[in-house]
Amino acid sequence: MTGTDxxxxxxxxxxGKVSSGLSVSHRPHSTRRKLAMxxxxxxxxxxxxxxxxxxxxxxDIATTMGISEPSAGHMISAYALGVVVGAPTIAxxxxxxxxxxxxxxxxxxxxxxxxxxxxxxxxxxxxxSRFVAGLPHGAYFGVAALVAAHLAEPGxxxxxxxxxxxxxxxxxxxxxxxxxxxxxxxxxxSAFTLVAVIGALTVAALVLWMPRLDAMPTTSPITELGALxxxxxxxxxxxxxxxxxxxFAVYTYIASTLxxxxxxxxxxxxVALMIYGLGMVVGNYAGGWLADRYQLKGTFVGLAATAVFxxxxxxxxxxxITALLVVFLIxxxxxxxxxxxxxxxxxxxxxxxxxxxxxxxxxxxxxxxIGAAVGGAVIAAGFGYTAPAAVGSGLAVAGLGVLATAxxxxxxxxx
Length: 415
Fold this sequence. Notes:
It contains 18 helices and no strands. By secondary structure, the chain is mostly helical.
C-alpha cells in the first residue's frame, strides 16, 4: 500500500467512525438524545444572544460609560477576539478532557464572563469581561457539534449538527430582540444578566440530560494541532471566511440600508431582524438536510444561492417589501451552508476534529470582521448602502471558487 493509499484509508476510517455515531446498543434512547440536543441548543441560544444583543445596546453602553459609540464598539471587537483566540487554544489544550466535562466547563466560563459584564465597574473591565465571555464560544460549538454527530442516528449527522446550531439561529429571532428590549427598558446590564441566567440553565440542562459520553475518544494537544497540517481543513475554513464575509457585509449595515434606502420605519427594524432570524432557522434546518444527502454539493448550492440573493438585494433594497423578502432569503441561504462546513471539517480533520470544528466559528468571526470592514469601506467611499451587497456577492462567489477547488482536490485524491 502506498503512502497516499494509506492516508486515504485513514480518512475513510475516520469518516466512517464519525458518520456512524454510536452503535445501537450504546446509543441513548430517543428522548434522552433529544434532551441532550436541546441542552446544547440552549447554550447556543445564550451565545447567539450575547453576541448580537451587544450591537443593539451599543448606544446605551456608550452613554452610560461616557464614551463615544465607536469607542464602545471595542467591546464587540474584544468578544470577537476572544472567539478567535479561544477556539484553537481551548480545543488543543483541553484535548484530553472528557467531552461532557469540557462542555460543562465551557458553559460555566461563558456564564462567569457575562456576569463579569454585568458587574464591570469601568469600560476597561467591561472590555476584559467581553473577551472572557468570547473565549468559550468557538470551542463550545465545536465540541457540541462533535457530540451531536456522535449521538446522531446513522445518516442524520449533519441534521443533528444543524439542530445544535439552531439555538444560534433562534437567538436572532427571540433572544436578541428580547435582550435588546430589556436592556433598553431596564438598563443594558439587565440584558447580560438574562444571558448569564441562560448560561446557568444550560449548565443545569447539561448536568441533567447529557449522557456520560464515555465512548467519545479524547486526543492530545499534538494530535489536535495536526489539523493545521491538512490542506482541506484550511480550504474549508477559507470558504467560511471569504464566503460568509459577504453576508456579514450586508448584515452589519442592514438597519441603515432598510431605513435610508428602502424607506422602512426605524421602529420596524427589529421586525426586519426577526425576519432575517427566521430565514436563518429555515436555512439551518434545510442545510442539515442537504448536507446529509448531498454532502459538499448541498453546501455549494447554499453558497451559490447566497451570492445570487446578495446581488438581487442591490435592486430589491429600494422597496421595503422586496427588501424584507430578500433579507429573509439571505438569512436562509447563508445559514444553510453552516451544517455542511461543520461536518466537512469533522471529515477532513481525521483525528483532530475538536480543533477543526472549533476553528469553524473562529472563521465566522473573521468573516464578520472582514465583511464589516469591506462594507464600511465602500459606504465611506460614497457608493451608498447597497454597495455592501454588491461586494458581498463578489465575496460569496470567491468562496464558491475556494469550495469548487476543494471539491476538485477531493475528486483528484479519490482518483
